[in-house]
Amino acid sequence: MSDKASVEITSPFSGKIASLAGAAGDMLKVGSVLCSIEVEGGEGEADSAPAAAEPAAPEPAPAPASSSTTPSSTTPSSSSSPSRSSNTEVLATPATRRFAREHDVDLSSITGTGRDGRVTKEDIWKFVSEGPSAPSSAPAQASAPTATSTLTAPAESTTIPLNSTRKAMYRAMSASLQIPHFSYSDVVDVTEIERMRLILASNIPLQYRKTLKPADEATLARQEQWTGAARVDPTRQFGRITLLPLLLKALSLAMSEHPIFTCTLSPPPSAGPATTDPSLVRRPTHDISVALSNPSPAGGLFTPVLRSIDTSSVFDLASRLAHLQSLLPTSGNGAPKFPPEYQGAGTLTLSNIGVIGGRTTHPVVPPTGQLAIGAIGRTRVEPRFVDEARAKRVASGMEEAGAAELKVEPRLVMDVTFSADHRVVEGVELARLVESWKRIVENPARLAA
Fold first, then answer.
1. Does 234 fall in a domain?
2. Residue 215 within any structural domain of the chain
3. Segment Disordered: which positions (predicted)?
4. What's the pLDDT at 268?
5. Is-above-0.85 flag for pTM?
């Protein structure tokens, strides 16, 4: 029963009310006498309904029975013993009892400060925080002494000032609020470009490799003698190739088809309210920024730029990405220090959330004047029809399945989402860029052209 319930309880006896244990509005202890009922023949006792409900209105006691009437043998039964030996004999609301159970407190160990000795939540809180203030009338249960260790005062909050990196993020993202964003999402089949990646990974040029066999050392020495192609710095060497350099190269080819994305907006949003008419500045090279998260406790998101991707090989891009990774701090609270070649902003940014495990996100355009940003999710396997065009015709009823079975094969797919600055980029322009990039990724032979 809740604290707010009011329930009429039917008496198990027929007769007249001889006396009431209290006036209307009084609180009676659980187990005490509610009323005495005078029954014919003196059968039974009427105190068998220890309910907390109160009668609608008290009735006056009847006149003494005549000598011919057998007086009721009912007498008010005595209340419980003054010593409280269990929780059920303590006056407390159900909510308070639940609070006591949650903190392993025996209600009989607490002297209530509420009306008629009622135990309140405040009494329990004081008991577990300070311990009993007076000897209990009944021994506490064995679990009560441990109550002091189950409830502690709430911990105080701590103010942590933003470091310089997060302050820069705060300012940049606040400036990005000026940009009206819109997004375009699609699913890209990366099966073929992944097969190309595996081929390239097994044919890394000697000058980029982390380790060389003695025969490779001799071969590289001859190459240096004739071509001057010296081995790159160790921080730019790598042992494997990820999909990212291939995706960057494919995006550069798509930018050639949609030159608006080789432009930046002037003045950029980070410069504040424009004092001159806005314009687009087209760059002669394809410069794409990549999003990197600082792994140190200082945190922070950085977007160093890879310049001239249109004239760079996939191996060169992989080398520069390896160099960027080497610049990220692995301990302490420092921020990475990028050399001038990586400083500045690109005309696009590509963020790889797939390394964390996510499938989809909606990236925010940085306020550097670039027009769009893309995010790629994790690669996963999905069943696809080998002849998707025929599968569409069969599904639409234009062709019957017939004897030729529709074959299904596993394919590697990846979710991609691009966001753009809608002040200067039309929705169809972003859609065409993404579809061109998707077409190149799904047919990567153009990367070798």
1. no
2. no
3. 41-115, 130-157
4. 84
5. no
Q: So what's the pLDDT on residue 353? A: 86
**Domain match, 130 and 18 both:** no
Flag whether 137 is in a domain.
Answer: yes
| Bridge partners (DSSP) listed for residue 135 | none
Q: What is the pLDDT of residue 14?
A: 77
pLDDT of residue 64: 42
Tokens of 141: 């249960």
Check whether residue 92 and residue 66 sit in a common domain.
no
Which residue in 296, 336, 288, 295 sits closest to 312, CA to CA?
288
Are 278 and 317 found together in one domain? yes
**Both tokens assigned to 13:** 């006896």
Nearest to 138 by CA among 66, 94, 182, 87: 87
Phi/psi at 169 (nearest 5 deg)? -60, -40
SS3 276: coil
Q: What is the pLDDT of residues 304-332, one digit of tens each?
A: 999 999 999 999 999 999 999 888 876 66
What is the Cα–Cα distance from 38 to 35, expressed in whole angstroms? 10
Backbone angles phi, psi at 255, to 5 degrees: -65, -30
Bin 369: left if φ > 0, else alpha if -120 < ψ < 50, else beta.
left
Contacts of 61 by beta carbon, 8 Å cutoff, 6+ apart? 17, 18, 19
Kindly report, residue by residue over 396-417, the tens digit of the pLDDT: 888 887 757 888 999 999 999 9
Residues listed for the chain: 449
**Spatial distance between the Cα atoms of 412 and 415, rounded to a whole number of angstroms:** 11
Alpha-carbon distance values, 440 to 34, 309, 346, 436 (Å): 87, 15, 21, 6
Q: How far apart are CA 217 and CA 293, in angstroms?
A: 36
The residues, ordered by sequence, that sit 6+ positions from 151 with a Cβ below 8 Å of its Cβ are: 103, 125, 128, 129
CA distances to 24, 84, 91, 100 from 94, rounded to whole Å, are 22, 18, 10, 10
Angle between helices 427-442 and 244-257 (to 10 degrees): 130
Last residue of a domain, one of 80, 95, 110: 80
Residue 28 belongs to some domain of the structure: yes
Low-confidence ranges of the chain (pLDDT < 50): 1-6, 43-85, 133-149
Q: Which residue has the tokens 């005495």?
A: 36
Residues 122 and 199 in one domain: no
Residues 191 and 274 in one domain: yes
Q: Give the CATH number of the domain where residue 123 resides.
A: 4.10.320.10
- Quick one: 29 and 116 in the same domain? no
